[in-house]
Design goal:
Chain lengths: 340, 674
Amino acid sequence: MLETTLSQLEASARARIEAARTAEELEVVRVEALGRKGTLAQISRQLGALAPEERARVGKLLNTVKQGLEEALAARKARFDEEGLRARLDAEWVDLTLPAPGVRPGSLHPVTQIQTEIEDLFTSLGFAVLDGPEVETEYHNFDALNIPPDHPARDAQDTFWFADGNLLRTHTSPVQVRGMERFKPPLRMIAPGRLFRNEEVDASHEHTFYQVEGMMIDREVSVAHLVYFMKILLDHIFGREVTVRLRPGYFPFVEPGFELDIHCLICDGAGCPVCKQSGWLELIGCGLVHPNVLRMSGIDPDEWNGFAFGMGLTRLAMMRYGIDDIRLLQSGDLRFLRQF
Amino acid sequence: MYFSYNWLCELVEGLATPPKELARLITMKTAECEGVHASGAPLPGCLPDSIIEIDNKSITHRPDLWGHLGLARELAATLRLGLRDPVKLDLIPSAPPAIGVSILDLDLCPRYSALVFDNVTVRPSPLWLQYRLRVIGLNPINNIVDVTNFVMAELAQPMHAFDQDLLHGDTIFIRRAREGEMVVALNEETYRLDPSNLVIADARGAIALAGVIGGLDSAINERTHRIVLESANFLGSNIRKTSARLKLRTDASMRFEKSQDLVNTVRGLARAVELFREISPGIRLLGGLADQRKELTPPPPILLPIDWLTRKLGRSVAPAEVRDILERLHFGVEEVVPGTFTVTVPSWRATRDISIKDDLVEEVSRMIGYDTIVPQPPLMAVVEPPASPERLFHRQVRLVLTQQGFTEAYNYSFLSEERARALGFDPQEHLRVANPISSEQALMRMSLLPGIYRNLVENSKHLESFRLFEIGREIHKREAGLPREVPHLMAALYERDGAAEMSELKRACECLLPGAEVRPVEARHYEHPARAGEVLRRDRVVGRLFELHPSLLAGRAALLDLDLELIFQLGVREKRYRPIRRFPSSAFDLSVVVAERELVGDLRRRIVSLAGEQLEEIEFLRQYAGPPIPAGQKSVSFRLTVAAPDRTLSLEEVGEIRTHVITGLRELGYELRL
């Protein structure tokens, strides 16, 4: 008798569990079937009236039904939870193609970027990075570099002068002199910076540009060492092995003096408009430090030797980024500057 | 400098290298060739020629390369070919001179040589001579002048011919000009001279500006019958000075300023004699050579130790090869001491170019070829280089600013007077360039503002809003010595329609300088009168934060100017660990009603001092104006966090602090909203 009631109860409860459409409806079903005053509880209270034998059998059945309903309820509930979560997550849809708000980082000037790379390279090779004034004495810019007054080499560097005889440095080489005055050899240094030439400005000429100067003074310094460092520098800057050549060049503060050319990066030596069909690009002026220069800075040339080099950062930046108008570098034009 | 290929072929025996290859060879061994050009249509009977162009700047140290023979010597040495010296010294007769020469300053004129010719016919040169001059860019004039130019182009020895019948007296004087002495030159310009200039003079006055240009009064003309041919040597630096002062550069002055070879004066005359005979038939020499010179002791030979040379090059060279190279270049080589060459320098290289053993390193290395030197890492002591913390600080500044959206610009160090005035700067306070090309370069910047202002104006034409900055040097003139160069940062934030929030810039400033304060200050000419402040760090003014005066720009711009030198000197923040607090803190809020323009910074400072030692943190929450706050006033709210290092503060203790602050504020006249 009770058994029949139980299986009817179970069937109806299961049907209602399946039919429940919300967590709340399901809770109503649970309370009615499994609650303290629920249908199963009522049946369990009637068990005491049964014979012990029957009581055990029905009791067992009761437990099975109870357990089965609990499982069905839990499964149904899990589905509701899952659906609820899914719905919530779905409602949280965002358009990922929307542009992100906020300020974007700015960029550093292309010359700053190249200069930083070169500073880091030479720092890693044990070189100091030194600085000097932009307004220089005639002595540091010329005389101490073996360019006395009325020397024709002064023609190569059109100079801005001040009434008191000082000038705007025409190269970063005076920092070499200041370096030698300040530090005793051995000395390894580079000096990047701004310099000035009294020239009319056009697409390929500027009165304001940037160089890096370098120098190494030690007991034994040879042309072979100079070429070694120049190779490291150029391979590093261009990120690949570059072909270089050395040829005679005249700079009064070095002897011997060289011009260092690299294989044109555009045509790789075949000849093109960029290298004026020569296949080569002039990049670095260098040489062994002239003994007069060492002597003027109080260094004994019989004991110490050195090499020095100078390279145009402006030119390098233009080559690397394919900039065809030098004026852009000083233009402050963000349409240009933001590209780097 | 133009070189004729055909001319070089005449001077170098068996030269067959084509012009382009020759140019490459010259570039690799001697001087920089800028290119090879066709010469244009040749004159009748002339072989077409090629022009090899050499960069003048690459031969300023080589007086000999200002003539074809000099380059021919280099080519002969490079290619191991013979050299054909065109000079026949025996063409100069030994007879008493027909004219007197009197050098009054042997330092400025170490040698003056001259010959007198009679029965001269002035007429156009033969076509071969005209063509040759044309090829190298000289204009043919007449046979006499053309010969002087030809010899100059061949031997690098400038010459000048005077019409003897137009001279006064029988002696040529070489002397310093008198103060105010005038000379009318061949270019028909009149030059006013002073004693720093050297002149060639006759009994009456100056007839030429020595080493620069001849005089008009004694010039060769179609009636010229007798000439004095001058071939002299002048002190290079003096010629350069004169030519610079008079702004007159000539083919002669360009050569003399390189310090020419004394030996060459007579060689030049001998070459001219030969050419005159060919192109002015019937010409006769009157008398012999007039020649006065300063006695110079030849420079001592140079000692060249071969092992020293090897160390300098970084590769070994056989002594026989060194000797061979030097001898090909006409050096004298002896080995008095084993392992060391005693080297004598040829006269045309000895004037300035070569005087020490280092100069010989170049001679040897360029001839053996630099490509034979293998790159080698040096073996040397590891030495820690001096640090450059200021440079690293600047890098840090750049990094922070780019992260805040600012892009780096570079501006000129120059500005014009107008630009200075436009921003209210006094041009007189600026360092002034003595020789600017244009007024744009007249002054050196004392502030980065003019450059940044230009950037704002220019970029605002294309962009609605932007941020940029520059790190550069302000140049401040001083009574004596070099000016003060102060590295500054200037950052700018522009918005055409918006407010150009100064707080955005202030944030950038606080990122750079944690703990820096901004204090309102009287505005400068270019600043918004109600939006200008000083930036303080450790009680020192290190910069300014301001908005640009709205009359200067369409749109709004906020600017930050920092003295990076001073900031660096004040030191960057020292990092030091403080134990993490172990006991909980308590917080309470306060809202204070103050006048609308009362500074929140001041109020904050007062609260901090009232709160005492147990104040852990004070945070600005908000400010509010509007009902129910009376007009002209605002309510400012802070959150105060208090704590003790060794225990949890009791409610009573927190209350006491709060009451103390409130009472204190009331005593100061503030009203609180509780």
